[in-house]
Structures are given as structure tokens and as C-alpha cells.
């Protein structure tokens, strides 16, 4: 290979690489998603000689063939080495491969296109980057775009032409892009679709450079017309025209190497009757094209830097302002997500869920306001069963001899029968007690989940599916514990027991002693030293007709225990312990959890904030890069 000679000074050559590297670095951090970056896009109709031009500049054979060969945008990064071996890197869609054989370029590019666009004939707008480092190339970055076609062939979609034009416009419509239009000399330049597209987005021709190819194929007598085009007399372009003669198909078939082809090109222009002057003017040959493109790109980058810096600063201020409308969310860095989860989100949740369970208050929420009606309903139900309980006992007394009397003598009564009435009545309270438990579970679960939504979605805008599942799992386990304890307490009430002093106080507060005459006589005569009824007092009270009233007094004791104890059990298990467990599990979330998935934001609000954060990071990095390079 021959080394390219340049028509500009070495100090300029040395200044080009940092400028191109700066733009490459800005692309690498994704700044081109926010701001258009200086670049050169290569467009041309099919069979315009576009691939030949790029091959001449890069020194490697690119995919060739009939139909659409370039099916994905190909970013060609050329880096001139002072010395050292040839090396290449191809990267796309997360794949990156280094190789040292230039003959592998064709195969690797085709493989990349097949993976991105399929093995058929479709196109794809995903970028393939081909980096070539060699002493025999110039410092230059180009983006090769699919050739323009009009008529679909083979299995191409009917709108393939429109698809290609849309893809091309995506690049050349940007004001920061230099449009490199490749046009064959042997066609009417004014009718080429590539130039027409360039004129549409760059009507004054300020950022369009045209390359004329295949000068050896023009008809005799048409040389003057081509000369006029190159001299800008037909369609003026501020960046002008360059005419080149690259390897043709016969040269490829004859395996003419690139260096021999370039020597033949120079010889062709030197000896051409009309075009030799163009070589002297720096408007002909691949060497002139390389020098022209490098200078144009470098100048373009230099001119763009002040505007680019201003755009970055403006966007940065706008992003910072927009971010103020969003509260702090999860960090974007994976290594920071665990600490954030435990120290920020979990701690904040922990503190507030603890306050909610302790006092019932959390901002405008008071959980006990929601629970009190449930417990009141339980209390009303218990109180309402007193009437049915007394009626059942009265009926039993009235029909005792006919239905309940066993082996006992006449006028005697069996306590077990009375006990059965109490036990059956208490047993019937189990179902409504469980209903109360389920009502409380629903209320507490709903409030917990709403609370999570308020804390986690509104504040952090993270989808709280895992904490919601925690609430359900915890409440299910706590409900089982509470159900077991309530059943135990119901069974305890079936034992029919209370301390003598408790029942004595109930009797003293009732009118039963008056009915027996105890109250009107010397009451102490019927009491033991501890003020409990003695045998005489109990004998006066031990009459069958007083049983209903005495059992109703005992039911008061049952009522008092159940109306308080069931709600207390439920509060303990379903609220206090559940909140404690939930708080603990929230604190332990990051241990063994996929925090990236856990903290993935799924709301529009969250996605917008994440996008703004990423833009802020890109713009800040870009600002630093430009400041350090200038």
C-alpha cells in the first residue's frame, strides 16, 4: 500500500486527531441523542461507486454485490498510525470484536448486517462501527448509508425505497452533518436522487460535498460537461466537487490491489486531456479527496464547538430545571442501589410504618379511624346476643324437668346443663369473631398498600410489587396466628370460669340479692370474711328461677372479655406485629434481592426522571470533555 500524501501542513494533520477523538468521545457517551454532532454522511444511488470510494479511503474491501449491499448504517472510523501493524475493531449492538486481518472486513460486516437486519434483504437503522488503525489511512470518520433504490427486487418490501430515504434523512437532515454525495460522471447529475435529497435538506449547498466517480466511463465529448460540474458551473456547492477513479469491477476481478489502483488513478488524471488541470487544483484523485474530507471535518468540528458548547450549556440548564420538578429517585448506578434501598427508601418506609402502627397516624391517615367501626360492629353483635342468650336459658329452666333433668332428685339441678348453654353460645361466637378478623385484615392490608404507594410511588416512583406481595404474605401468616389465638380464647371461654370476687361484684350490683331478701337483712350474715357469699348466702341464691338472671350476669363477664380481647389480639397480630415484620423485611430487601429489578421504575413519572438524570450525566460529561480538550 502507498501512503497518502497531503496538500496541507503536518501541524494541521496532528491537530485533526484530537478533534475527531473528541467527537467520538461525545458519541460514546451518547450525546448525539441530545445534540447533533459534526459528522460526514455518505449517500449515493445504487451502483454510484460509493463502496469503491470508501474502499479507496479505508484500504479494505467492503461488501459488494447486486441490490442493497449496505443494509445498516456503517460508521467507518479511520485512525492514522505513525507506525505499527494494521488492526480493526467491529462493534454493534453490544458485540465488539478485534481482528488483525483486513481480508476479514467483508465477512464481519456481512455477519453484523445479517444479525441486525436479518439474512433477507431488509434494512435496519442500528449502527455498525468499523474502526481501522493503520499507517496507510487518514484520520477520518464517515457514516456509510444504504444506497438509494427505487424498484424493489427479489423479496424486498414494496416500500424499501421509502425506508431507505427515511433512514438517510435521519442523518443528513441534521445541520451538523456534512453530506458527501457520490454521483457517477456518466449520468445526469441533476436527476440523481442522492443529490436531490441533499438539496432538499441543504438547499444552499453549504454543507454538501459531491464526489464524481467513474470518469473513465463517460462518453467521448461529454468531458466538458463533467469539467463544468466539477468547477461548480452547473449546480454550485460551497464545499465543491472532487472527481475520483477507483477500482472498477474488472480491477476487482483482476485482483488489482488498492495501491496499484491509486497509482493508476493518478496516472489517469495526469494524462487526461481535460481532467489533468483538476489534479493540479486539488479536485481530483482519492488522495485529494482524503485531504479534503479530513480538512472539511476538522474545520467543521472547530466551527461547531462554540455552538456545541452553548447548546450543551442551554440543555444542561433546562435539564437541571426540569429535574427540580421530580423528587429524588433511585440512583442509576447499580452499585449505589443497595445502599439507597436500605438507607433511604427502606429507612424512610420503616420510620413511617413504625409511626403508623404505634400511633395510628401517618400524614392524613389514621388507621384506627378505619378499625374502630369494625370493632364497634363486633361489640354491637356481642351485646345483641345477650337477649337470645337469656331467652335460651329461660326456656331451658322452664322445660328443665321435661327435657334436661337427668338422674338428679326433684328440685335439684345439674350445673352441666347450664354450662352447655354457655358453651354452645360461646362456640357460636367463633364465626363472627373470624369475620371480624378478616374485615380487619382487609382494612389493614389496604391501608398498608396505600401507604406503600404513597411512600414508594409518590416519593420514589418505583413500582412496589414486591412490598405489596410482602404485605399479603405477612398478613396471611399473621391472620393464621390470630385465628389460632382467637379459637384458643373461645375454647377458654367454654371452661365457664371467673373469680368469685368478680361474680360477687356483679351480683352486688344487680337486684338479685334484693329478690332473695339478702339485701334487706344483715348482709354480713351471709358473707365470709373476704366478703364472698358464704354457704347460707349461696343457698338463698341457689334457686332455679334465678338461674337466667345469674347466667346473664356471667355473660356480662364473657362479653367484657371478648369485646376487648378479640380486638386486642387482632391489633397485636394484624397491625403491630405485621408492621414490625414488614419493616424488618423491607430493611432486608437488598440481601439476596435483585435490587436493579426491584428499583426499576415503571411509571411515566419515573421514566421521565430517569431519562433526565441520564441526560444530565451525558451533558455534564460532554461539558467536561470539551473543556479538557480546548
UniProtKB/TrEMBL annotation:
Residues 34-306 form the Dynamin-type G domain. InterPro entries: Dynamin (IPR022812), Dynamin_GTPase (IPR001401), Dynamin_GTPase_CS (IPR019762), Dynamin_N (IPR045063), Dynamin_stalk (IPR000375), G_DYNAMIN_dom (IPR030381), GED (IPR003130), GED_dom (IPR020850). Keywords: Cytoplasm, GTP-binding, Membrane, Nucleotide-binding, Transmembrane, Transmembrane helix. The chain crosses the membrane at residues 444-463. It comes from the Eukaryota. This is Interferon-induced GTP-binding protein Mx1-like. The keyword Ribonucleoprotein does not apply. It is found in: Cytoplasm. One of its GO terms (cellular component) is presynapse. Residues 544-630 form the GED domain.
